[in-house]
Amino acid sequence: MPHSTPPFTSLPDLALRAFGGSVVAASDESFAEKESLIRPGRPGFQAETFGNKGQVYDGWETRRRREPGHDWALVRLGLPGVIRGVVIDTAWFKGNYPPHASVEAAAVEGHPSPAELLAAPWTEIVPRAGLKGDAEHHFEVTDESRYTHVRLNIHPDGGVARLRVHGEVRPDLSLYDGLSLDLAALKNGALVTACSNEFYSAPNNVIAPGLARHQAEGWETARRREPGNEWLVIRLAGRGLIGLAEIDTTNLLFNAPGAVSLTGLDGNHELELLPRTRLQPDTLHRFRLHHTTPVTHVRVDIYPDGGLARVHLHGHLT
């Protein structure tokens, strides 16, 4: 279904299961499981597919409420941060979608239980709003606070296919005091801020948690037909000194770049971290870097085009 997408949807989905998100509790999930809310990808549907509980939905669906109140789902953000926008997707729910929904957020450190979360103070970030069936609903959020959990409230009951919570990652890097860390990891606050081409898949995939299971979970460009090469720029988790670069072409068998180079950026200063170096397909490459200048960004150049599964830049914050 065609629709306009606001700018906040280009930011990472802080609640995504692939980023460590979890639906830790729900008031009800009689018809369809709560875990579907944060699955990657578009919701699927196959008509006239019935199980013991009725039509099978790729989403979260509660029973028909016969008493006062409303249903809710608690989501732990895999990447705590500042929420810039929320997407509530009722895809395929046409006669059983909730007429209204709202979203709250909370900041609860540590490893709270569902009971502790329910007792925590919550802030409304998306006021109660009307929903349509089989549609994506975009809600911009202006709250500048850092949150670790969200609660989706549906009024009074029904089904929601996906909940997307887009924002800026704000990790607690004090855990790494005195230790090395991946300065390019999305979970540590890094972000791809510029990219020459993202025809097949998003560039932020290269700094996502975990391993890429297939090509679409990495970054892949179109075939380049003009002179030059493709590139992206990673804003690091903080100004730091990089000692080890991992360039992963896993799953890229016939579309891996021929070579890669790394350039450190610190203000107007550029520093060669890794000269143009040959790559192999479907391979995790590790390169020790020998320099003594901290940088805030790294430009990754691939020659001439292709894709990368992951980029890891291990070092110390300065």
UniProtKB/TrEMBL annotation:
GO molecular function list: allantoicase activity
Catalytic activity: allantoate + H2O = (S)-ureidoglycolate + urea
Residues of the signal peptide: none
Presence of the UniProt keyword Acyltransferase in the record: no
Alphabetical keyword list: Hydrolase, Purine metabolism
Name of the protein in its database record: Probable allantoicase
Enzyme Commission code(s) on record: 3.5.3.4
GO BP annotation list: allantoin catabolic process; purine nucleobase metabolic process
PANTHER family assigned: ALLANTOICASE, INACTIVE ALLANTOICASE-RELATED
Pathway(s) per entry: Nitrogen metabolism; (S)-allantoin degradation; (S)-ureidoglycolate from allantoate (aminidohydrolase route): step 1/1
Keyword Hydrolase: yes
Domain Allantoicase: 20-169, 189-317
Species annotation: Nonomuraea cypriaca
Record family assignment: Belongs to the allantoicase family.
Source domain of life: Bacteria
InterPro entries xref list: Allantoicase, Allantoicase_dom, Galactose-bd-like_sf
